[in-house]
Amino acid sequence: MSLFLIWKKYGKNKQLTNAGPFHQQLEEALAEYLGVEHLCLFANGTLALLTAFQALRITGEVITTPYSFVATSHSLLWNGLKPVFVDIDPVTCNMDPRKIEEAITPQTTAILPVHCYGIPCDTAHIQQIADIYGLKVIYDAAHAFGVKREGTTILREGDLSVLSFHATKVFNTIEGGAIICHDKKTKQRIDYLKNFGFAGETTVVAPGINGKMNEVQSAFGLLQLRHIDKALAERAALFDNYKTLLADIPGISLLIPPDNIAWNHAYCPIMVSDAFPVSRDGVYDLLKSHNIMPRRYFYPLISSFPMYRALESARQDKLKIAQLRADEVLCLPLYPGLEKEVQVEIASLLKGVSENVSSDSSALKTDEIFAERVA
């Protein structure tokens, strides 16, 4: 069914926004699909993150990762909170729980981990720390739509999980987001906060914002949800094809979750190590020169931006693993409809660099050799 056909129903209710029937249907359908009790839709993921901290009345310091999209930490500043960055695990690219505990101070009130690339954090260890120190845990689950560990959704972890439904995500409503919570009282507060704080026609109970998802976005989401399993299967097949094509290239490795994870294949991150004769940025430039658009997720680190770099926790010597990954990870194109010929071309280009550069004179740096060839 097309968006036009589903939108014909609009003529019956004449409601464009303010929690109309499509909005209500999508909340219920997503909660059922994801295996969660309560889900609150938002116009975008950033508004959902901003509201999550208001919903739990978070103050003071929040421990988080420098290895993410900037919206993660921006949501803290907008709430008057102080980000405290900690280094990441070299295998998963998620926050290292050992570093979290070291960063706790009397001002710490919450932890903001990210399920990076949709690969789950060490949620058990993080929750153990939170329980010991009385901290809230809000997961930035922007990448983690549909991800499960040992058959159970990871969106039930922590106090809240925040999803993004941006057009680049596995499931999208063009723009959109959601907060996952565990009880009716919290959902009610979130619903008030995203609607200017209104609890009734003339009653305002909190300083809310306009975070509501409209009916067009909601209708689009209902259509997307009908095809999500097919899209996830196609992503998995494309990722497996990359694994095969890139398996024998020295210095190129894929970031792969543990076997007990039912992953959504949201991204295809490769690590370009020193064993590869060209740097990550050299590979990035090479692919772009062939009209292939990879992404350097996540470079530069959030902690390097002007509004964060003065923080003590932003010092580079404290974030060595995060900086290493920021310099060597490249996300290859991965989306339903990606032609396998493009994947073959990517592998061919990488193999060509590996084989040809190794036979060149070592008098030139490998990136200089590459630059000469691209030029």
TrEMBL record:
Its EC number is 2.6.1.87. GO terms for molecular function: pyridoxal phosphate binding; UDP-4-amino-4-deoxy-L-arabinose aminotransferase. CDD domains: AHBA_syn (cd00616). The modification N6-(pyridoxal phosphate)lysine is found at K169. One of its GO terms (biological process) is polysaccharide biosynthetic process. Keywords: Aminotransferase, Pyridoxal phosphate, Transferase. It comes from the Bacteria. The active site is at K169. Belongs to the DegT/DnrJ/EryC1 family. This is TDP-4-oxo-6-deoxy-D-glucose transaminase. It comes from Citrobacter koseri (Citrobacter diversus). The lineage of its organism: Bacteria, Pseudomonadati, Pseudomonadota, Gammaproteobacteria, Enterobacterales. The gene is arnB_1.
